[in-house]
Design brief:
GO terms for molecular function: phosphatase activity. By secondary structure, the chain is of the alpha/beta class. It has helices at about 5-15, 30-40, 50-55, 65-70, 75-80, 100-115, 120-125, 130-140, 150-160, 170-180, 195-200, 205-210, 230-240, 255-265; strands at about 15, 60-65, 85-90, 185-190, 215, 250-255, 270, 285-290. It has three domains: about 5-80, no CATH class; about 85-95 and about 170-300, Rossmann fold; about 100-160, Putative phosphatase, domain 2 (DNA polymerase, domain 1), CATH 1.10.150.240.
């Protein structure tokens, strides 16, 4: 197992020497010793307790230093919680592309035409889901007197104008380009339909060309159940030319609660970039950030920003 020197030094930063060396182990040889010992131990050594035991075995007694831990909270979280990542999967709407306000406008128009209102409850039920599942959620929550097919037809009629111009979300291009340059395999798992994907991605061929593949959940026969079920992420993972060895080494980026649930159900780690209206205490995402601009690749042992 290859161990990055920064990881070793980060762990050392959380500790201090409490006694003189019991045997002649000098500081200069610490990293070498650590690397040799690590290769014989399992991943439990990522945790502070196991690290302390190792330090003791080298001839020095180390113990957690409260001040150091408090000043290195991000490093401590990285060590304790996050598993190294080899593959990345992104949601698209509301995460990479600023499309959610456009969907909200289109749905609100339909609801108003039937004397109803597109409520927050309905929005939460629709976010991240396939076109059919989202339509049924809105129809039910907003008491619309139309069928799912009729609702989808009304939505489709608005798309050419609604998606005429779509902006990128903050940080999306930078992060995707960073992974591409670092040769980290990345894919998209979107609940969109093929027709709407083509409209939204028009003029962004260079950006979408950085992905290994794109799973379009509403039209993909292998995606039997949409988010919050894990199908779409399992399909996306297995389609990588070199699939991940474990689902835990896949990092999912999501903006919806249903997407977070789907990623976690797939056994993957999930970075959640929630809509401001969402209750962030209700989910167990691996990490929560306000924007893709706030993501730190090193937390997941990924290459740092260039």
């Amino acid at each position: 197992m290859f161990i990055h020197r920064p990881m070793i030094m980060t762990m050392m930063a959380l500790y201090r020497v409490t006694t003189e060396p019991i045997c002649g182990v000098d500081e200069a040889s610490f990293v070498t010793l650590f690397r040799e010992k690590w290769a014989r131990l399992d991943t439990a050594l990522h945790h502070c307790i196991a690290f302390t035991r190792f330090c003791n075995s080298t001839g020095k007694r180390y113990q957690p230093h409260k001040q150091n831990i408090e000043s290195n909270k991000e490093a401590a979280i990285m060590i304790e919680k996050f598993h190294p990542i080899t593959h990345v999967i992104f949601d698209m709407d509301g995460l990479l592309l600023d499309t959610e306000p456009k969907y909200e406008k289109a749905i609100s128009t339909i609801c108003e035409n039937f004397g109803s209102k597109y409520t927050l409850e309905a929005k939460l039920g629709a976010l991240g889901r396939t076109a059919t599942d989202a339509a049924n959620a809105v129809i039910t929550k907003c008491n619309l007197p139309i069928s799912c097919e009729e609702f989808l037809d009304l939505m489709e009629s608005q798309y050419p104008s609604v998606f005429q111009h779509v902006d990128m979300m903050p940080g999306a291009e930078k992060l995707v380009s960073h992974f591409a340059q670092a040769q980290i395999p990345q894919a998209i798992a979107t609940s969109s339909k093929t027709t709407t994907f083509r409209l939204k991605s028009k003029g962004k061929e260079d950006f979408f060309g950085k992905f290994s593949h794109i799973v379009i959940g509403s039209d993909d026969p292998e995606v039997v159940q949409g988010k919050p079920h894990p199908d779409i992420f399992h399909v996306a993972a297995k389609r990588f030319p070199n699939p991940p060895e474990s689902m835990q080494s896949v990092l999912v980026f999501e903006d919806s609660i249903n997407g977070v649930k789907a990623g976690l159900a797939a056994g993957m780690q999930v970075v959640w970039v929630p809509d401001p209206c969402l209750d962030i205490t209700s989910q167990n995402a691996t990490q929560i950030i306000k924007s893709l601009e706030d993501f730190n690749p090193q937390h997941f042992h990924l290459p740092k920003w260039a």
